Amino acid sequence: MRPSQDNSSHPVFFILLGIPAWEKYHFWITFPFCVMYMMAVVGNITILHIIRIDHTLHEPMYLFLAMLAVTDLVLSSSTQPKMLAILWFHAHEIEYHACLIQVFFIHTFSSVESGVLMTMALDRYVAICSPLRHSSILTTSVVIKLGAAVMVRGLVLVSPFCFMISGMPFCPNNVIPQLYCEHMAVLKLVCADTRVNRVYGLFVAFSVVGLDIIVISASYVMILRAVLQLPSGEARFKAFGTCASHIGVILALYIPALFTFLTHRFGHQVPHVVHIMFANVYLLVPPMLNPIIYGVRTKQIRDRVIHACSGKDP
Fold first, then answer.
1. Can you tell me the distance from the alpha carbon of 247 to that of 221, in angstroms, rounded to the nearest whole number?
2. What is the pLDDT of residue 4?
3. Measured distance CA(147)–CA(4) in Å, rounded
4. Per the confidence metrics, is the pTM higher than 0.70?
């Protein structure tokens, strides 16, 4: 057996336990996880392919959707293959640097996903509340700049997590009682004062999520006000249904993510199994649902999927 600690201050590898106390169910839990991951991969690749080949979809709404699809693919693929290997093949070891890379990708692209959802809410607000100015406000260059800003924000805010952890000494214990490497789970194994890391983590979480939730909430409030003024009851019902599905997917990201974040710090009485399940929901469910809610439910993309499946040209 390989030594768990070399001569440096960090372990050679970590042990990801999976779902403690549920080991006998690991084999069966893998199946729904695998199905959701495959749905996320197939759905998001399909969305990207359709947007790429159809030049009529090179508009702000669909460009943001393409950004969301790429983010979902990276976010889900950064965790799910290793999770499936743990649950199915008992491959519990993860190399130290691979663990830090996983921390980086999970938190960077969680931030990017939140930012893209915010920009999509802004796009819908402009499209519904100022339709005549939509094309002049959200040009292709503006969309690219917004996407770049969201990406840079994630990189700049999350990178310090990994740099700070990499320079800290670790305790002999190298066991992480989860399915993947997450910042706070790794930080708990550090044998040093981690107050700066914890404060910085709180700052990043509340500055990113706080800003995005405020913008998203304000956008949908304005959208709903505009919807209530529609003369047709059928149009209002359809618009409410679309807004409700969008808000449902947004909540599926934020509620489990905030629950996971807060229970790591304050929820010591929360059963560990509950914590782990919530920690996986926001990495599995939104990437699976986003192609359906934002993609297939959109008429233009739905029509192209139907034509592609039937082998006919649109």
1. 11
2. 57
3. 41
4. yes
The amino acid present at 237, given as its one-letter code, is F
Span 256-302, pLDDT tens digits: 888 887 777 776 677 878 888 888 888 889 999 999 888 777 778 87
Burial tier of 53 (Cβ tally within 10 Å: 0-12, 13-18, 19+): exposed
Least confident of 108-112, 140-144, 291-295: 291-295
- Report residue 134: phi and psi, to 5°: -60, -50
CA distance 141 to 244: 30
- The answer to whether 239 and 227 have CB atoms below 8 angstroms apart is yes
Average pLDDT on 187-196 reads: 92
- CB atoms closer than 10 angstroms to residue 154: 23
Mean pLDDT rounded to a whole number for the chain: 87
Start-to-end Cα distance in the chain: 59
Q: Across the beta sheet with 93-95, what order do the strands follow?
A: 93-95, 13-16, 175-176
Helix 272-290 to helix 96-129 angle (10° resolution) is 50
